[in-house]
Request: fold
Amino acid sequence: MTGTRRYGYDELRALMSRMTGDEKHGPAATSTLDVLWVLYDRILRVSPETVDDPARDRFLLSKGHGPMAYYAVLAAHGFLPEEWLTGFGAYDSPLGHHPDRTLVPGAEIGSGSLGHGLGLGVGSALGLRAQGLTGSRVWVLVGDAEMDEGSNHEAVQYAGAVGLEQLHVVAVDNGSATYPWRGGLASRFEAEGWSAVTVDGRDHQALHEAFTAPHPGRPHAVVARVESKDAAQAARATRIATGSGTAASTGTGTH
Amino acid sequence: MDTMRERFATVTTELLEDDPRLALVLAAISADLFKDAARAHPDRVIDVGIREQLLVGATGGLALTGLRPIAHTFASFLVERPFEQVKLDLGHQGVGAVLVSAAGSYDNAAGGRTHQAPGDVALLDTLDGWTVHVPGHPDEAEALLRHAAADGDRRVYVRLSNHANAEPLPGSPGRFQVVRDGRGAVVLAVGPMLDAVLRATADRDVTVLYASTVRPFDAATVRAAVNRSVRPDLVVVEPYLAGTSAPFAAEALAAFPHRVLALGTRREEFRHYGTWQEHVAGHGLDAPGLRGRIDAFLDA
Reply:
């Protein structure tokens, strides 16, 4: 749509650095970076040319906080012009601190209030199935703290009960839930009949394998564990205090 | 005569047969009325169980894929409990749906406050772009449901009740009708309130307007009727929270001095059980109750 070149993974942080003003959600933004990259690079069958194709795969960013990595990945893949990134959060910018689907090309939902993406994802999977579009997949990205919201559990239990195979969840777990999920987040999905796997959320090959694991007759959840929010914040504070650049670490999973 | 809710089941079952774009989402309530439809269209008749956030969330998701979803349960669990889903999963996503409620204000009188939602229309008034139908008879409910199902991708609320007028008054959605022409003042009756309004004002020289679609508010018809009156007095009688339409009436009449009396169910919690007829009387919305308050207002 922009005619500009597409970017690679190594250039994402440069794209993200163009966005300022939402430092509060900094750790939330970088926790999703690798998951988003692998999804858009290797999993999702959607492109700027097919954003209106009824049979496209759907990616629903439920955890709308810290959308810098999301916008960077969308820009890297040509869904939106990279020039938009510098306006992030400004009055006339289409890119807010929480995404609005009516303003952001390629964004399937507007989000920010936690706990809405899974319900919308369930409905999307049901709608695709009802129209015979059984090859289309729905991916919903949630955060581990977002799973505190009760609305998610209505969706998880229902999707498991009816075996909603087209529905996928990737839960980015940076240990930010106020009360940790006893037994780990994956166990909550498994208990409701989902296929579930926990992987290193910075390991692209492991993520790819988890994302492509067969799960006949069941919805599928991937828990992607990344460094804890507190650790990420502490590291960031150190970088700022020591003036050691912004974000060079590739973080290999300190969980 | 069947109830509005039973008519909803009959009509929706038929519409699901005719229109492959329609889907019905339930949360246990009324599921027994849709057994045949669910058997015929298992992919488009969806019962999520007692999960009202998911009821509305899934409705938004269905709409995102291009379907025209109809979601149904009691008003308290359709509008109040999942209000943020109504606001965000429909409005903020920019998608449409038909929400069909039952038992809104006082139908479930013996059920008490937990099963009553007299504030439903007022809550929807805080949002953008909702059409609100308040049919006064099962035949009107059928016509408005058919209209809503075919109403593009608009967000439409259809408020069904056991409280109904004796006869239907067919009209075109969005236009208030002149039921009786008078000179003294104007009384606007919404949906099931018409019969009681006509009895309460039988011996007064007033214009009676009827609205089975209350949003959008037909300001032009109200303004014209009040303009024709000897005194610029308007009485609004609604079967839900008193005053819900008062801001719309004030806006319609803003160009000239006027008076508005807004009647509906009272705000104070009404801790009684019994029947819906007893509750209508308890809220002062039966003919004697209306007559006393309308007379006092117009004769002041």
Observations:
- The longest strand of chain A covers residues 167-173.
